[in-house]
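To start, an entry.
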Amino acid sequence: MADRVHPSAKLNGNATNPTTKLPPKNQIYNPNSIPYRPTQTTYHRHNRRHCSCRRCFCLCCFWSLLIISTILLLAAIAGAGFYFLFRPKPPSFSVTFVKITQFKLTTTDDDTTRLTAKVNFTLSTRNPNKKLIYNYDVVSLMVESNSVVLANGSFTGFNNGPNNITIIHSTLSMVSQVLDADSISSLKSDLKRKNGLPLKILLDTMVIAKMDKLKSKKVGIRVTCEGIHGKIPIGKIPVMASTTNAKCKTDLRMKILKWTF
């Protein structure tokens, strides 16, 4: 068989090659066009502004931290120097006398039980420092028995000088206080004890420490005296409470926002 020869296809001027793709109109290459390049002035100006803002922020943070650290360091040095130079000691409290002069539980027709009580006591506070003075605000006082308030009151503010002992005589009272069932049950149970009611004396006040021209800020303190047992009056004769095992503890009271610690 003779081989057949196919004539090659000729492209005329109007024909297009089906395998050739034309570029889109917006991507047609123009040899005379110049590509856009940002000028060096614009680039450096933006970079310089960014570096300047960041540098100012870093400097502000550095100086702020340095100043705060310096203040804290100076305060720590001053506090340490004050402590080692004067050796300040906290005040001490003690109970010397307690007597329940009135105690009465009254139950009305509507089954409401009311308490009327009066307590006399004497506290002493000692300032063991040689140069430090304690200035006390008005003192709030309260007597409790197993969380049941028996009497409360207040005492005027006073100054306690160096190596000085201040005596506080106070009479606290409670008139017709309504008691709940748990409080009544607790009191009646404690009244049957041989040594009487377990008593707790609470003292709350604000104090300022002074020495020459130096003065601290007001600091709250709470004094809790426990280990006291008192008997109710026999007829009209009150009986002195036992204070042999009485001990008082002093705690700082710091207030942060709405919470007191």
